[in-house]
Amino acid sequence: MQKMDCRSFKEMLDSYLCQELAVETNHAMLHHAEHCSSCRCELGARRQLRESLRRSCAQECMSEEALARLRARLRAECLAECGEGTASWTVRWREVVKQLWAPKVLWPFAVTAALLVVGLGAWRWLLQPTSGGQTLSPALFDAATEDHLSCGVKHLNAFLAAGPAAINPESLGKYDLACARLPQVVAPDVAGLHLCAAHVCNAQERQFAHLVYTKDAQVVSLLVTARDAKALGLPEVLPADADNSPQLELNRRQDIQLGAYQTTKRVVIIVSALPALEAKMLNERLALPVAEYLRRSESQTASVMIAPLLWGDFPMILGGGTVR
Amino acid sequence: MIQGSARHSQPKRADEKEAQERLAAFEAEALGYANQLFRVALRLCREPARAEDLLQETYLQAWRSFPRFELGTNLRAWLYKIMFNVYYSAQRRQQLEVVPVEETIAETIAYDPPTPQHLTEEEVLLALEKLPRDFQLPVVLADVEDLSYREIADVLAVPIGTVMSRLHRGRKILRMELARYARDAGYRIAD
Ligand SMILES: [Zn+2]
Ligand SMILES: [Zn+2]
To answer: What is the value of pTM for the model shown?
Structure first.
C-alpha cells in the first residue's frame, strides 16, 4: 500500500471525491482517513462543500419560455432541412405568440391615433436618399405605409375584439421559414413591444410578411418583402452589397416613419407613427436584427428556398394559399 | 390573392417524417441537459439573454452534427464542448487566456486552511462568483457538472495538466474565501 501523509491526503482529496484517482491511491486515501481523525473531518467538510456547491448552482434554471424558444428553434431548423414548414409550424407559432402575448390597457388610444392618421388620407411622400447602395422605390414605401395603416389597424381592432384568437394560425403556418422564426429573433421584451398579429398580406400588389406589434399604445408594423426589381424601381435586380452590414434607409409619409434595410433577397421595413427618436430606436433594435438574421439565413440556406425571390415570386416562398 | 404554386408543394414527405423522428430522438437525448448547459452559459455570458442565445446556437450546432456524435461517449461533455467552441469562436478566442495574475494568486495561497462547515448556499455561491473565471469554469465543470478532468481539458481546449492546476488553485481560493466568511461569522471551523 502507498504511503500517505496528511498533506498529500488533503492535496488529493478533491480528486478523490471526483473519482479521478487510481484504485491503489483510493485505497491509500481510505486507509489514511480511517486512522486520522483530522483528515476524516476534512473529508466530510469537503464533501459537504461539494454538495452545497451543487445545490446552490442548481438554483439557476432556464425559464420555461427560454426552453420553449429553444425547442421552437430546433424544430424550425429541422423543418428547414426538409424544405418546408407544415402544419406543425402552426402549433409552434401559437406557442410562441402565446409567450409574447401580454395584455395592454391602452388599446383604444392606439386605435384612435391610428385611425386619425388614416383619416388624414393622401400622404405625400418625401424621399430621403441614403448614402451609398441602391435606394428603394417610393412605391415600395407607399405600399408599406398603406399596409401598416389598413392591415395593421384592422388587426389591432380584431385583436381588441377577440384577443389572441384574432391571430390566424393557418396563415402563420404559410410563412417562408426564415420569416416564421422572426418572433424568436426579436426578443419578446425588446423596447416594450408586443406582438398582436402575424400573417402574410398584400398592399398595392405587393406581398408582405407582416408582424403587427404594439408599443406604447401605438401600432408598429414589421414588414418583410422580396427585394425584387419593382422594390428597387429598376428594370432588373442588381446584386446587394453583401459584405457590409445592412444600410438603413429612412423615409416618411406625413406622421408615418419608415425605416428599411435591404438584405440580398429581402427588404425589411419598419413602419410606425412613433416620435422620431423612438422610431430610430426601433430601426436599430427591431429591424436591424431582423435584417441581419435574414441575411445570415440567406447565406446559409442558399438557393433552394430563396432563389425564386429574385424573380419576384414571393408567394411561392410564403407558401401560397389565401391571405387574411 | 395569392396563388398556390405546384412547384412549392413538392417536399419529400418521407424525409420530413424521418427528420422529425430524428429530432424527437435528439430532443430526448440532449434537451435534458439544457439546464446544466444554461448554468455554465450564464457564467460565460453573464446575461441570461445572451446565455440563451449561446444555448440556442449550441443546440443548433449539436443538432447539425448529431449524426457524427459517437455513441458511447459522454453526450453532456460533447454538448459542453460545442458550447465552448461556439462561445470562443464568437469571441474570436481559441481557448481560455492564460491570465498573468494566475501565478500571483497561487503564490498568496500557499496556506490551505481547513474547510469550514455549515456554510449557507448564498455564501458558497458568493465565493464561487469571486473566483476568476479561468478558475471558476474548471471548478464548476468538475465539482458541479461532474465532468472528468479529461473531458474538461477537451471542453476548454487546454492540456489536462492545466486543468488540474487550475482546479487545484481554484478550489483553494474558494476554500480560503469560505474560511474567511466562516471566521467573520464566527462559525466553528473544523480542525
Ligand atoms: Zn491525516
Ligand atoms: Zn398585414
So the answer is: 0.52
Q: Which residue has the cell 461532474?
A: B146
For residues B88 and B110, state if they share a domain.
no
CA–centroid distance, residue A208 to ligand 2 (Å): 7
Q: Do A74 and B4 touch (CB under 8 A)?
A: no
**Which residue type, as a one-letter code, is found at position A125?**
W
For residue A17, which residues of chain B lie inside 8 Å, CB to CB?
A: 143
Q: Which domain holds residue A37?
A: 6-58
Q: How many domains does one find in chain B?
A: 2
Angle (nearest 5°) at CA B8 between B7 and B13: 105
Q: Which residues of A touch B144 (CB under 8 A)?
A: 53-54, 57
B189 domain-assigned: no
Query: CATH number of the domain that B51 lies in?
Result: 1.10.1740.10
C-alpha–C-alpha distance, residues A209 and A224, integer Å: 5
Pull the grid cell for residue A244: 457590409
Distance CA A117, CA A140 (A): 19
Please say whether the beta carbons of A119 and A234 come within 8 A: no
ipTM: 0.81
Ligand nearest to the CA of A11: 1
A60 in contact with B at a CB cutoff of 8 Å? yes
Nearest in space to B134 (alpha carbons), one of B98, B176, B165 = B98
pLDDT tens for each residue of chain B, 191 residues long:
334 444 444 444 557 778 888 889 899 989 999 999 999 999 988 888 889 999 999 999 999 888 888 877 889 999 999 999 999 887 765 444 544 444 445 545 566 778 988 888 889 999 999 898 889 999 999 999 999 999 999 999 999 999 999 999 999 999 989 988 888 877 554 44
Q: Å from B34 to nearest chain A CA?
A: 8
